Backbone:
């Protein structure tokens, strides 16, 4: 490891639906200072917003509870590893309450949970538009006002400041909504390396640019932040950096037992990427390079709310087995705007597939496709997209010469329409092809229910509009709060606890005591 | 200059993914010193020809000297974006691996000097 202090941070998941045991593996096998869990892909917030609209307790990544219940919460407690996660999604409050309740169940009564809120800018969008401001789609330039009525969600990518402040306030677990993925890691580093402490002592706000949080003596804070951000980017997609989705898939050892990544991040911005001990997978210059450039856009200007990262000259060096040193990353000041990912309703969708054999599989597939289209030709709003898998569906036109005669084909149809009824007609027309199309059509499965389509609408908002809305709420049990107000109350509480646990005191007293203890486990909140 | 035809996978590996309606294809030379070969043949025009039926917007190719690669950005490549694309590969995750099958033409003399295995 390079000179200077370093912090060990685990990346226990790449998206909502990743392997649930991964964070447990990391916690059991490794000594981590922080465990970070990214659950939010571009589309996730809109799905969660819809869930919350139907049920006020939903709209967050409930997968979090699966691994916390399976021993994760006890491991966090015993190993004193801090958890930083955006599992709160569209409903950080419900998420934080569930986690606190679970902590109490295992007797971790003084667990302190911080909830970071304020990324939801949907109400703000209405104000901005009604105030006459023009907001356009980041890439297409379409005015937001055109889709304003159909908006389902609008969440700003918030930076690391609030996470760092929450940790500085003593949080064991930080639950956020939409923050930039890498900011989970940057926030942890700001805390670990004393930047958060320094900012608090200087009376800085959580939205003061984090590059100004650097204590005296830190050289090139923007480069340090860029290095931390890149470390975060490298581990926030889970095992994609440690052997998953690798071009070297044929030679990666034991993909079934793939290990999740750990970043050992230096105070100067350099880091070593490695993975949990004794697991499958591989961390090599090649696996890290593929993740380095994954979905970053311009390598000289990878945009995040904390810093603009220039990774064009970042170097990777294998220092020992499964350990890659990442250095020479440069940073530029964060942009004056924040990216907002909004989504709006955009019609209905369904997809279905059938298989068809040879000989002349292509002839049969084309026949089945034309029969289906003929039967649905009177539906004016319906658009059907057909792919013949096995016959070159993955090949763009410039590689069409690589197509080979297939022995069978999977025909996949996807359809969209502004009308739900047309999508239902489409799904009903698939099964009959088995008996009424070319010979040998097979593989019909249950009709897919029409799904409402959400179109992604990214735009930029002035930072201060968003950042003034960001709040940190410290949540703890009433018991912890009382103890903090008056340490002597502990004697009383211990006595009540004993009665509740069944000390011979008579049934009525025990019931009252249990009621009191239950009340003491309720979450209470304090503002930022 | 004598050109040699090789598969792109002979000189590079890669990965692809999405950002809105854009597909990001990262290509990294197997050896850092082979990067020039990538830069010479992976141009926006070449990519536009390959993906003519899939990409509606403009194409950028950014050199990445640190790791010896290029990052290719294909705008308007996902039928409006991953959430509404009708294509099965709605996030362009296949496109990088698919592209590695393409034939490219590289400077034979330079390739020999750099010890690129030629067919």
Residues:
């Amino acid at each position: 490891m390079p000179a200077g202090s370093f912090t060990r941070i685990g990346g226990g998941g790449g998206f909502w639906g990743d392997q649930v045991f991964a964070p447990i593996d990391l916690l059991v096998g490794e000594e981590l200072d922080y465990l970070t869990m990214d659950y939010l892909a571009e589309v996730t917030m809109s799905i969660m917003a819809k869930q919350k609209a139907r049920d006020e307790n939903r709209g967050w990544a409930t997968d979090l509870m699966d691994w916390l219940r399976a021993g994760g919460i006890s491991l966090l407690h015993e190993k004193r590893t801090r958890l930083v996660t955006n599992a709160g999604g569209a409903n950080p409050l419900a998420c934080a309450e569930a986690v606190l309740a679970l902590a109490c169940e295992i007797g971790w009564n003084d667990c302190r949970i911080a909830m970071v809120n304020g990324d939801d800018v949907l109400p703000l969008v209405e104000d901005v538009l009604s105030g006459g401001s023009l907001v356009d789609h980041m890439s297409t330039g379409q005015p937001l006002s055109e889709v304003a009525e159909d908006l389902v969600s609008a969440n700003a990518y918030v930076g690391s400041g609030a996470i760092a402040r929450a940790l500085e306030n003593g949080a064991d677990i930080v639950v956020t909504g939409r923050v930039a993925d890498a900011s989970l890691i940057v926030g942890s580093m700001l805390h670990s390396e004393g930047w958060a402490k320094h900012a608090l002592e200087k009376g800085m706000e959580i939205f003061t640019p984090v590059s100004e949080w650097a204590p005296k003596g830190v050289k090139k804070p923007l480069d340090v932040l860029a290095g931390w951000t890149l470390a975060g980017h490298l581990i926030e997609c889970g095992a994609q950096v440690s052997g998953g989705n690798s071009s070297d898939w044929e030679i990666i050892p034991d993909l079934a037992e793939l290990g999740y990544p750990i970043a050992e991040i230096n105070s100067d911005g350099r880091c070593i990427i490695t993975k949990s001990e004794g697991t499958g997978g591989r961390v090599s210059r090649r696996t890290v390079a593929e993740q380095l450039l994954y979905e970053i856009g311009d390598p000289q200007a990878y945009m995040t709310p904390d810093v603009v990262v220039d990774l064009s000259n970042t170097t990777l060096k294998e220092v020992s087995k499964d350990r890659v040193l990442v250095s020479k990353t440069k940073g530029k000041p964060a942009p004056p705007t924040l990216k907002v990912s909004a989504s709006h309703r955009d019609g209905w969708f369904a997809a279905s597939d059938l298989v068809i054999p040879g000989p002349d599989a292509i002839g049969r597939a084309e026949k089945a496709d034309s029969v289906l289209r003929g039967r649905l030709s009177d539906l004016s709003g319906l658009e059907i997209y057909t792919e013949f898998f096995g016959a070159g569906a993955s090949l763009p036109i410039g590689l069409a010469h690589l197509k080979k005669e297939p022995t069978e084909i999977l025909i996949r149809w996807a359809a969209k329409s502004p009308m739900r009824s047309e999508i239902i007609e489409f799904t009903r027309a698939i099964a009959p092809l088995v008996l009424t199309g070319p010979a040998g059509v097979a593989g019909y499965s249950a009709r897919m229910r029409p799904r409402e389509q959400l179109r992604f609408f990214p735009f930029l908002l002035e930072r201060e509009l968003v950042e003034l809305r960001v709040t940190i709420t410290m949540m703890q049990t009433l018991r912890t709060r009382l103890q903090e107000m008056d340490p002597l109350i502990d004697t009383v509480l211990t006595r009540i606890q004993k009665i509740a646990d069944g000390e011979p005191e008579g049934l009525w007293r025990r019931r009252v005591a249990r009621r009191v203890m239950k009340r003491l486990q309720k979450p209470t909140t304090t503002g930022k | 200059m004598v050109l040699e035809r090789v598969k792109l996978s002979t000189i590079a590996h890669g990965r692809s993914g999405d950002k809105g309606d854009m597909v990001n294809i990262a290509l990294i030379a197997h050896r850092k010193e082979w990067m020039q070969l990538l830069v010479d043949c992976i141009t926006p025009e070449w990519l536009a020809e390959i993906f003519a039926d899939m990409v509606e917007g403009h194409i950028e190719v950014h050199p990445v000297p640190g790791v010896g690669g290029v990052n290719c950005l294909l705008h308007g490549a996902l039928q409006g974006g991953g959430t509404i694309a009708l294509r099965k590969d709605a996030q362009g995750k296949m496109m990088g691996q698919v592209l590695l099958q393409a034939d490219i033409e590289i400077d034979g003399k330079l390739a020999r000097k750099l010890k690129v295995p030629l067919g």
In short: Chain B has a mean pLDDT of 96. Chain B is about 25% helix and 30% strand.
